[in-house]
Amino acid sequence: MPQLLTLPEAVKLLRVPATTLQRWIRLGEVPCQMRNGEARFQKNTLLAWAKKKHLFVGKTSGITQQRQQANLLAALERGGVHAKLSAENRGVLFQDLETRLNAHLHTNAPLATLLEEREQLASTAIGQGLAVPHPQTPGMLELSDSVVAIGLPKIPVEFEAADGEPIIAVFVLLSVDATHHLQLLAQLTRLLRNPELMGFLHTQPLPDALLEAFRKSLDSAAH
Q: Is 7 exposed, middle or buried (0-12, 13-18, 19+ CB in 10 A)?
């Protein structure tokens, strides 16, 4: 008989938030069976679906021997979108991000200091009004998994960008280690080359609409 997984077991296998998997179930995007109102997943079918969707899964029995590849969509959904950030200057922006992300992630990290220390080395602005601020050393926050949080300041913020453009959006990259940092940075860079997504980002969309646009872009890229 095929092995059936519960929702928590499928979450562990796919390494995505439970809310993400529940949304996929509601939309009929993930193969599952309903048993007494609860979703059950055939393991081999789920693994085949995950491979097609370019979700990075691996053996999860016992202790994981090697951290699995970072998943940008899961990291974005963990981080969320934080709009109308105070933005008189970069320091004020980082302070507001620290307050919101510590509350969102249930941490108590000196995030503003860590981000500003990294900016002192070189601007994390990548052009076209975007920046990817992050601590100088990945893993400093001791998170259980990597996070990418989108921050939308009330007004554009000066970031000493090479193209001279002030910043309209930041993607705060909080990685559990250097490998995840490089993987997420590469995935994010590819995603931000999408001209339609960039155009939408510059329209100052609502947080839910922006996150949904990222989901659709990542899903399209997976096909």
A: middle
Burial class (CB in 10 A: 0-12, 13-18, 19+), 27: exposed
* Inter-residue contact 15 to 74 (CB < 8 Å): yes
Which helix (H) or strand (E) element contains residue 218?
A: helix 207-222
* Overall domain count for the chain: 2
List, for residues 111-133, the tens digit of each pLDDT value.
999 999 999 999 999 999 999 99
Domain membership of residue 63 (yes or no) is no
Residue-wise pLDDT tens digits, 22-31: 878 888 888 9
pTM of the model: 0.70
Is residue 96 domain-shared with residue 41, that is, in the same domain?
no
The residues that are catalytic are 134
111 and 45 both lie in a single domain = no
Q: Give domain status of residue 118, yes or no.
A: yes
Say how many C-beta atoms besides its own lie within 10 A of residue 128's C-beta. 15
- How far apart are the C-alpha atoms of 50 and 101, rounded to whole Å? 29
